[in-house]
Specification:
2 copies of one chain form a homodimer. By secondary structure, the first copy, chain A, is α/β, with parallel strands linked by helices. Chain A has 14 helices and 13 strands. The mean pLDDT of chain A is 96.
Chain lengths: 408, 408
């Protein structure tokens, strides 16, 4: 039987609490030029003391060699196999989640680019000269008005960043079985939104999207910097099983960035935004919420951002800030505390990577191994070895006494 | 292809011998209060000397975070994936195996409770005041007579312990697709044995079970301490492939407790009961049987019992007894000797747990690693790492020279 189903059948409600401290992109690599990782260079007395009381290892976000995006990386942490087609969160949905929009089951989502067409209809610039975010907001506002006149559906166009926008079409009988209109290459004409399934719903949706594109173009023809829009990643809420039903948890998410809040919302978490973007504000929120929930996902963003910038010093500093704030969590005395990341973002690579992430699982019954530091070299000697990230959730539930015995 | 099928296709008969020494619940955990496990505290010179000649690691009975019952735990050791629905041994079957009853393919098994109903038909006590085992035997004897009069089937009622009994209905065309009659809660009425499948066989079986329940109640109405019976876990022999056909082995089991003998019998092992419950009696039996078989499952029970009692000292003592007896096995010079448990039973938890179990596989060709002790901390540094328990059997067969090459 599938792992998540076994776990679900064995899950029971208890009073014990589980905290997932997810340090985005925390994992690093050891190279000849930089033989120590960011975690190894950081001064982390609190994380190290916790490692000495924990079970350690490495978490493999997707599978060997596969670099996960933030969506799959987080799904795995919460026990959802990110490689399962039903667990796929579409690009459009991710874009819309990224602007903190509350997606409804009837919403069809797509990501859009403002672009420039040549007089012959071929694409001259897929990003409309990387127009500014301000200009993107202006264009979206102008277009929104004409979209209100499309019959039978509600269409929302929302600025994202620079030339990027999110499109939400809300209505009955909409299908996500539509091909991208973005040809992904200059010199080619934009594509039609072709149905990829032979269903009435897909054909109907294709007609709606054509109307939307015509409405967008009719506004843009008066503008100097963009005259068309390219759409891709048509998708809807994948309707994943919620953590409440799946694990009998009452889960809360604390995150500063919209995408992570969005993924958490899809999984049934109540989502909270801290007073500001600091880690200490997130910890304050945890204290406030602590009595109301039995599962907490705390997301630390900046380690990943600095990892992508290749900024070793700043990534190290964020890790040290997390270390400084750790005692706030410990003082709450959760039955289970998991510390790991959703993937590695080595500063040498300046991008997400496929390397497994240092992992520690603390509980009274975790079975303490010999690891006394929280970093790559130390966790490599942990008892867990390299485990799929999807195994963290079952282990956390077991350690919290939330899983009954399997069979007699 | 499924692992067990690949192994089966490659298995060949040889003269080499494999011994599985299964120390039930032997695994322990390291906590802050008790930083050493029972295996680490025990004086085990023989096990340690064997570890120095073996390949070590940890065996994961079911999957990460899942605590197995004894049934699934043992199935895994013999290579049968315990999470596969076809490998599920029903509750009723386990109860009947637990009284050392030889289940036939036509037998429908259930576990029963003697219980007390109120005048309005609701359950007042699901366990009939936890009546004594003596009284349970008396009641079963009285009831058996009236069950002999049910037409078309043979019905056996066998005392288990206190208020618990086992029911076996033997006849043609019986189905296990019946719902429990035990509502699992006082204040509710017992349920009808409702067919869970729309088949003639299930409907017929439901009628038979109703007759059985009426016969039981008609006897009990004259008794002061119980007036009804609750049935659950209707199930039949899952007809698992036997180890003879699967692995071309001639297997024997040596076990003192009925449940383990029962599971071994389901897998095709010839089952032997030692002269008494001591480990040395089990070893005597091994010596006697050694020439007749090529696979031996020796089950040591008391480590688990003391683990469940939270009795560290006694669990340690049993481990030391095993160590003392180990030379008897070594003197027989089996080609392969596996030492592990079916799951962990840490004395700190006083129950089965999800933690992987120390494992060593000895053979002349096992590929000796650096581990020189048989315990959790040492095995954590073994070359095998954490492997599913279902991989032990293929490794044992390979080490015994009983698997041919896969492909050319």
């Amino acid at each position: 039987m599938e792992k998540i189903k076994i776990v679900s059948e064995l899950a029971k409600k208890t009073n014990s609490k589980i905290v997932f401290l997810i340090i985005d992109g925390v994992g690093g690599i050891r190279t000849i030029e930089h033989p120590q990782t960011e975690l190894e260079l950081a001064h982390t007395p609190n994380l190290d003391a916790l490692a000495a009381k924990s079970m350690c290892g490495r978490s493999l976000p997707a599978t060997f060699g596969i670099t996960p995006g933030s969506g799959p990386g987080h799904l795995a942490l919460f026990g959802y196999d990110p490689l399962k087609p039903e667990h796929n969160i579409g690009r459009g949905v991710l874009e819309v989640l990224g602007i903190d929009f509350d997606i409804q089951p009837d919403d069809l989502c797509a990501r859009g680019n403002f672009a420039v067409k040549n007089p012959d209809g071929t694409i001259a610039d897929r990003r409309a000269g990387r127009l500014s975010t301000e200009r993107c907001i202006e264009l979206c506002n102008k277009i929104q008005e004409s979209l209100n006149r499309i019959e039978g559906v509600t269409v929302l166009i929302k600025p994202v960043k620079e030339y990027r926008f999110a499109l939400i079409i809300r209505g009955e009988n909409l299908s996500s079985a539509l091909a991208d209109t973005d040809p992904q290459q200059v010199g080619l004409k934009p594509l039609e939104p072709i149905p990829t399934e032979n269903t009435e719903s897909a054909k109907h949706t294709a007609e709606v999207v054509k109307k939307v594109l015509r409405a967008i173009e009719s506004v843009l023809e008066k503008e100097p910097d963009a005259n068309t829009a390219l759409l891709r990643g048509f998708s809807k809420d994948p309707c994943l099983p919620k953590m409440q039903e799946l694990y009998k948890l009452t889960p809360a998410a604390i995150a500063t960035y919209p995408l992570y809040r969005g993924v958490a919302r899809l999984l049934g978490m109540d989502v909270y935004r801290p007073a500001d973007e600091t880690i200490s504000a997130e910890m304050e929120l945890l204290k406030e919420l602590y009595d109301k929930y039995d599962f907490f996902f705390i997301h630390i963003k900046k380690t990943d951002s600095y990892g992508e910038d290749g900024n070793r010093e700043s990534k190290i500093k964020v890790i040290e800030q997390v270390d400084t704030e750790l005692p706030t969590i410990l003082a709450l005395n959760p039955e289970v505390l998991v510390v790991t990341g959703d993937h590695s973002t080595p500063t040498q690579i300046k991008a997400h990577s496929w390397h497994p992430v240092p992992l520690m699982i603390y509980s009274r019954y975790c079975d303490v191994d010999d690891v006394k530091q929280f970093n790559e070299s130390a966790c490599d000697r942990g008892r867990l070895g390299i485990i799929p990230a999807t195994e963290i959730m079952p282990l956390a539930l077991a350690n919290a006494g939330k899983l009954i015995k399997y069979g007699a």
